[in-house]
Amino acid sequence: MAEPSPDRAATQDELDLLHYQPRIERPVKMKSPELERNERLRHVIFSGQFSVDMLEDLARTADRIRILSKNRSGQDFLIRLLHHKRAMLYFTQPSTRTFLSFMAACQILGITCNEVRDPTTSSETKGETRFDSIRMFSSYFDLIIMRSKLARLAESCAYLMNDLEATGNRSVPIINAGSGADEHPTQALLDIYTLQRTFQFADSRSSTISTRFEELRKDYPELNQGLTNKVYGFCGDIGRGRTVRSLASLLANYEGVTLIFIAPDDPTLALRDDLRTRLLDRRVNLVEVDSFDATYNGKPVIETLDALYMTRIQKEHNAPGDEQKFAAIDHSRYKLSTKLVERMKAYAPILHPFPRDQHFGEIPPEIDNDPRAMYFRQARNGMWIRSALLASIFGVDHQIDRFFHDEYSEWHHYNEGAGVGGEGSEPSTASQSGQF
Ligand code: CP
Description:
The protein is an alpha/beta fold. It contains 16 helices and 13 strands. The strands form four sheets. A five-stranded parallel sheet has the order 9-8-7-12-13. It has a four-stranded parallel sheet with strand order 4-3-5-6, sandwiched between helices. Helix 3 packs across helix 16, helix 4 (72-81) runs antiparallel to helix 16 and helix 5 crosses helix 15 (375-393). The protein binds phosphoric acid mono(formamide)ester. Phosphoric acid mono(formamide)ester is lined by residues 95-99, 178, 187, 353-355.
């Protein structure tokens, strides 16, 4: 967070942020209850707010929205759910996927959207503080989804809303859609959802385990369904990657995971002390190496991974002197190639939060057709999981469950005897491809 400079008086924006500093510095466990109402999430600020049970519930709702969206009656039902709500998308940092998938998620559920993306078109250019802007948005809208280069702005805005609520004023939920180099919790939700779908190894036409899973077990006898007991690799700009920070924190919820960070041995790009401490406190098996060919458990790292999360080098965060410092690094070690992919496990998904950098080339396009390349499906999953999140925040997820079951009993009846699904099974909620 920006500190007021000793050479000048602090701006009101800086004072507003400093006001919330003591609340921000508390441990996540202490802060989380303030971000909930009636055992539901009210504000979504960091990934540490999500338990495994919550992730399972969200994935189930996302699967149901995905299936219902495939036909007209499902679409008509979904679009009526929240048609009385309005959302503000306040994105003052560039975005393609997060902005558009939140907008699409709102549209699926009937929420009307408006946006401020360029603060030079808002009254902030006339000296209005960010906090006054947020309070104004809360006057007109029922939800604020925000991205900012300031690490703790979204969290501060959630406390502002709580303070307003406590004094009987209007207050709305805040969703953090990316805050500086700190957190990107809804990206972590879609990353986890993609991994959940991939590691269900479910048949694409029923909820049964796929024959492919049985085939894979011949080569990988240790392979299990689900996210537990797996090795996850993160490669690239680990130090400044907010998506890495949020996803690593979520993966720490699962038993028996190993997280391998593959990054240059540089204090800016390597794993930061705070995240290392947080992961070790949660007893994660943590490994830090500087190349895919470093050894883990007697094998090159690339051959041990159950999933690989690539990232780009985030040049936009370079400090003066960084470019020169980074020139000495062998960046080829942090780029994927078809040769490296050939050495990966046959089922190991390759993820990337995107955008990828065409100039750096951490994932060259020739990998896109490999069945393990999951990044475009991963981005589409963002629309479904963000729809599920909105449904949960506004408390309509149970309506989705009920409608789904009503629709499905008809579907099941219609297909009875057709060899699709089984007694008590549901329409497929997963496939190895992870996409409908
Ligand atoms: N992954 C992600 O946050 O993408 P955008 O910056 O395009 O929103």
